[in-house]
Design brief:
By secondary structure, the protein is an alpha/beta fold. The chain folds into two domains: 246 residues, FAD/NAD(P)-binding domain, CATH 3.50.50; 106 residues, D-Amino Acid Oxidase, Chain A, domain 2 (2-Layer Sandwich). It contains 13 helices and 18 strands. The protein has a seven-stranded mixed sheet with strand order 6-5-14-15-16-13-17, covered by helices on one side. α1 runs parallel beside α4.
């Protein structure tokens, strides 16, 4: 079947799925996106994604969106300070010279996730994204074709289905028996708004990058997330249902705050202020990851990208950055097959051949970073956080 007659379904309207659709359409290959959310703004995101030049930025450049990205991007400080529980500075890390774009060695361009989604959506042909379409399952129909059964009862058949549907992907079970496993680590998130004006001491503590403090199985991470916002994560090892075991209602902000302050009792008051004085409530995030390496036998008509392919813990693995690069690379390989009028399945094979080692490198680095940070002897075994192995490998290439 000629590439131009293919019907391609991308399941999931995250950064990876959308940039893949944009890359395909940019090269004249039609694609449709199916997203379970009811609308683009159904689940507002206020956090920021900092994109590396060799991966996330490269993906947007390949999709013909660099100018639009630069118009929306803002510098994200990359300086990291590692502290102990007393607030003493153990190590400083600044992004490597030459590792960033035009904003200088200490900054990366960052973009709000809501802005990134809007940029990508605006670049697509009208009607590309079908909102409110939750994929229930896929049925093989022979010759690499699959019928997608959606929760509205409608079924549609596609020549290629790309699972860009995140951690709990509905496409993944067609390729792999792997399921995300609980890492043993909980992140409880909170944050500060208008931080320079309302919380100047917190602003000075965090600076324009991030500060990380670890002591045994517990840690606090705070970073600038946009110009006037700071995002805080309390990290600790515990069971996934720690709150239930403690009789804690996660919707009760005061109770969660008290529980966290009790868990971090004895820490320096400046660090405890990250929990005591935050503006927002608390979001509970048990960290899950897929096995490393996560691979699957090549199956005509199916593939994965982003968290669906390589869910990993987030301490040193920027998920949006990796997903954008995946989407860009898959679109590139499919577009090359279209250009040379060859079998699109060869493009998927080429994409997966490169995906497996680079995603394994990133996932291994992410797992090591988390284990190192929350090890019994932390923070004496200080690690250098920002650059994951995947990005370093791309930079050397």
């Amino acid at each position: 079947m000629h590439a131009t007659t293919l019907r391609i379904a991308i399941i999931g309207a995250g950064p990876g799925g959308l940039v893949c659709a944009r890359g395909l359409q940019h090269h004249g290959v039609p694609a449709e996106v199916f997203e379970q959310e009811a609308a683009a703004d159904a689940r507002p995101r206020q956090d920021t994604a900092a994109l590396w030049p060799e991966s996330g930025q490269a993906a947007l450049r390949a999709a013909g969106l660099e100018r639009e990205f630069r118009a929306l991007a803002r510098p994200e400080g990359q300086q990291t300070r590692l502290l102990d529980r007393t607030g003493a500075v153990l190590a400083r890390h600044t992004a490597e010279p030459g590792a960033v774009g035009t904003s200088g060695a200490r900054e990366l361009p960052g973009i709000g996730r809501a802005e990134l989604r809007r940029l990508l959506l605006d670049s697509l042909a009208p009607g590309t994204v079908h909102w409110g379409r939750y994929l229930r399952t896929l049925h093989p129909r022979g010759a690499g074709r699959h019928e997608a059964e959606f929760d509205d009862g409608r079924g549609e058949t596609f020549d290629l289905v790309i699972g860009a549907d995140g951690a709990w992907s509905r496409v993944r079970p067609m390729l792999s028996d792997a399921t995300p496993h609980y890492s043993g680590v909980i992140f409880v998130e909170t944050g500060f708004e208008d931080v320079d004006a309302r919380h100047p001491e917190i602003a000075r503590l965090v600076g324009h990058g991030r500060v990380m403090a670890f002591s045994g199985p517990e840690g606090l991470i705070a970073r600038r997330d946009g110009r006037d916002r700071i995002r805080v994560q309390a990290a600790f090892r515990d069971s996934e249902d720690w709150a239930l075991a403690a009789g804690l209602d996660l919707a009760d902000t005061a109770a969660v705050r008290a529980a966290l302050l009790g868990r971090f009792a004895g820490w320096d008051a400046r660090l405890l202020a990250l929990l005591r004085d935050s503006d927002s409530g608390f979001l509970h995030r048990p960290l899950f990851a897929l096995p490393v390496p996560h691979t699957w036998p090549h199956t005509p008509g199916l593939t994965l990208l982003g968290d669906a392919a390589h869910l990993m813990t987030p301490l040193s693995a920027p998920g949006a950055d990796l997903a954008l690069f995946d989407g860009c690379e898959l679109a590139r390989h499919l577009a090359e097959a279209h250009t040379w009028q060859s079998d699109p399945d060869q493009g998927v094979r080429a994409y997966e051949t490169a995906l497996f080692p680079r995603s394994a490198a990133a996932a291994e680095g992410a797992a090591r970073a988390l284990d190192s940070a929350l090890a019994p002897e932390a923070p004496q075994r200080a690690h250098r956080p920002p650059r994951h192995r995947f990005t370093r490998a791309l930079h050397r290439r």
